[in-house]
Amino acid sequence: MQELKAGRNEAGQRLDKLLAKYLPKAPKSFYYKMLRKKNITLNGRKAAGNEIMKEGDLIRLFLSEETIEKFSGHPEQIPGRLPDKWRPQVIFETRDALFLNKPAGLLSQKASPEDISAVDYLLDYLLSSGGLKPEELKSFRPGICNRLDRNTSGLLAAGKSLAGLQELNKMFHDRTMEKYYLALVAGEMRQGRRVRGWLVKDETGNQVRILDQAAEGTAMIDTAYEPLKAGRGCTLLKVELITGRSHQIRAHLAYLGHPIIGDTKYGREQINRSYREKYGLRFQLLHSWQMKLPELSGVLSELSGKCLEAPLPGHWKPVLDGAGIHFPPGME
After folding, report:
1. What sequence ranges are listed for the domain RNA-binding S4 (predicted)?
2. Could you list the residue range(s) of the whole structural domain that residue 63 is in?
3. Residues 60, 65: Cα–Cα separation, whole Å
């Protein structure tokens, strides 16, 4: 017999969903049968499986150790040693949320099992700092709420608890958080604009196209930008991501005739080559810079009204200096 006591990360989950996490190799019919036969009970009583867990609830599994072991999964292994060169900087942390500054070159989430991603560094940080116990991974996995392209640097928001993850995801879904990026683009731009377009995905090539009219399969996009300073053949932009579509900023700016420098997918090869040769530039110069949070209560109340900011990575500095655009105060 085993007992499972619901903590704050189990609270709010359905009993059957929680059992599926503890016994991931068991068919649904198995644990529903065990519930009917009272071989699995909730707070000493028969349960149907649709009950919403509360903190402190007690699940008893009247099953043999062999049966539990047979149907149990194991938490995903974290690489024993993660490369320090990709380790994100912790920008801000509360009991339920964490904000990281992702370096360019690191995946936000795994594309294949052997990949190393920001999620690995998140789990490594929480496990090593005592913010998470290995056994807790059976019922809840902290996660990243927003995704940045591999070669884009900057702010990632992560939920450390179930409640934190749910509230952050809701903010991104409802667009109540303001998100600002810095981009160095080709050409000199003097006027800020808010522009809309329609984005269509090409899944085969992992690219998107921008159209000026709605068509079948398109999604509306909304982007605003403000020139901060023009340099020698380029401009540093502050970009507000109003909608959050795949490759939106990169493709939208390229469509407007001002591709991001270093962008090998949507940029201009001749321009990119010159920056590679002159500065050794390997990444697109796009950075998730600021997140401005709305007024909040509840588990994220410590974040209420805050503006979180990720410093620019070092590989920007020689490019900006060469263009005569010096790091503005507070961006370094």
Report:
1. 13-73
2. 2-71
3. 13
Q: Count structural domains, the chain.
A: 3
Q: Return the CATH number at 140.
A: 3.30.2350.10
Q: What is the pLDDT of residue 80?
A: 67
Instruction: Return the structure tokens found at 131.
Output: 């913010």
36 and 109 housed in the same domain: no
User: 206: which residues sit within 8 A by CB, 6+ positions away?
Assistant: none
Q: Is the pLDDT of residue 76 over 60?
A: no
Same domain flag for 95 and 182: no
Catalytic site positions: 149
Indicate if 149 and 269 belong to the same structural domain: no
Q: Which of 248, 245, 228 is nearest to 237 (CA)?
A: 228
Write the pLDDT tens digit of every residue in 173-211: 999 999 999 999 999 999 999 999 999 998 777 899 999
Query: Of 141, 174, 207, which closes a domain?
Result: 174
CATH number of the domain within which 56 lies: 3.10.290.10
Q: Indicate whether 288 and 194 sit together in one domain.
A: yes
- Own/partner pairs for 93-96, CB < 8 Å, 24+ apart? 93/160, 94/160, 94/164, 94/300, 94/302, 94/303, 95/160, 95/161, 95/164, 95/299, 95/302, 96/159, 96/160, 96/161, 96/163, 96/164, 96/167, 96/299, 96/300
Model pLDDT for residues 83-108, shown as the tens digit of each residue:
999 999 999 999 999 999 999 999 99
User: Is the same domain home to 30 and 149?
Assistant: no
**pTM to 2 decimals?**
0.87
Dihedral angle, C-alpha 192, 197, 201, 202, nearest 10 °: -90
